[in-house]
Automatic annotation (TrEMBL):
This is CoA ester lyase. Keywords: Lyase, Magnesium, Metal-binding. It comes from Pseudomonas nicosulfuronedens. Residues 2-203 form the HpcH/HpaI aldolase/citrate lyase domain. InterPro entries: Aldolase/citrate-lyase_domain (IPR005000), Citrate_lyase_beta/mcl1/mcl2 (IPR011206), Pyrv/PenolPyrv_kinase-like_dom (IPR015813), Pyrv_kinase-like_dom_sf (IPR040442).
Length: 261
């Protein structure tokens, strides 16, 4: 799952376009993208779309907000692909969500407290993987959006995911819409840190994100040569491209090929 595309829950005319945009996952958003006066209508639009067969993740409103309980009631009746919880900072909302739905939970780490508690959040019931709410995080701690300022947070989210035995996490959005080179650069940086996907706020971002998180032809050729050389060596030491192949290298090659299956 490389690309996760948000679409506002109160804009049903955009649902079909989002689902056809090539994203691996579409997120119908009931939180930030929906004004308070449109929340109730958005829930009905979402209900109709999912009952009509839309296979989507649903981002609900934050724990403690007046809309959280209503979103929870909606979830009890809907077969969603997953639930994204904003501003995840404690275990309590995951416990309530897990009691309301069997859908996998994706907590968004968006604050200093969320990052401080990230391992507890990752170990909460029903959690499948974490996501980084990088824009809200910047606002909360007062930093800029540079690689240096957010490196610690990104690395902590990746490490906590691994320690908790979760699937690898999803990185935050790019705010640029028309600079495919920059979106690709940011996505490749995320991939090098251990993220396997990225949140998107516009269909134009999807293609660049998908490509950046997919193994290149060069990587796949290398992986196939590593596996072939290992199989032919019958357990003896072997090298590929002048580098020794040991078990971690073999596992890396196998993981790259697994991404194409």
């Amino acid at each position: 799952m490389r690309s996760y595309l948000f679409v506002p829950g109160d804009r049903p005319e955009r649902f079909a376009k989002a689902l056809a945009a090539g994203a691996d996952v579409v997120i119908l958003d009931l939180e930030d993208a929906v004004p308070a006066q449109n929340k109730a209508a958005a829930r009905e639009h979402v209900r109709k779309a999912i009952e009509g067969g839309a296979d989507v993740v649903l981002r609900i409103n934050g724990f403690g907000s007046s809309d959280f309980a209503q979103d929870l009631a909606l979830l009890r009746d809907l077969p969603v692909r997953g639930v994204m919880l904003p501003k995840a900072e404690t275990v309590e909302p995951m416990v309530e969500l897990a009691a309301a739905t069997t859908a996998p939970i994706i907590p968004l780490i968006e604050s200093a407290l969320g990052l401080w508690q990230v391992l507890n959040v990752a170990r909460a019931p029903g959690v499948e993987r974490l996501a980084f709410g990088s824009i809200d995080f910047q606002v909360d701690i007062g930093c800029d959006g540079s690689d240096e300022a957010l490196l610690h947070a990104r690395s902590q989210i990746v490490l906590a995911s691994r320690v908790a035995g979760l699937q690898a996490p999803i990185d935050g959005v790019s705010v640029v819409l028309d600079d495919e080179a920059l979106i690709a650069l940011e996505s490749r940086r995320s991939r090098t840190l251990g993220f396997v996907g990225k949140l998107c706020i516009h269909p134009r971002q999807v293609a660049a994100v998908n490509q950046a998180f997919s193994p290149s032809t060069k990587e796949l050729d290398w992986a196939r040569r590593v596996i072939a050389a290992t199989e032919q060596s019958a357990g003896a030491a072997v090298s590929v491209d002048g580098a020794m192949v040991d078990l971690p290298v073999l596992l890396k090659a196998q993981n790259l090929l697994a991404l194409t299956s």
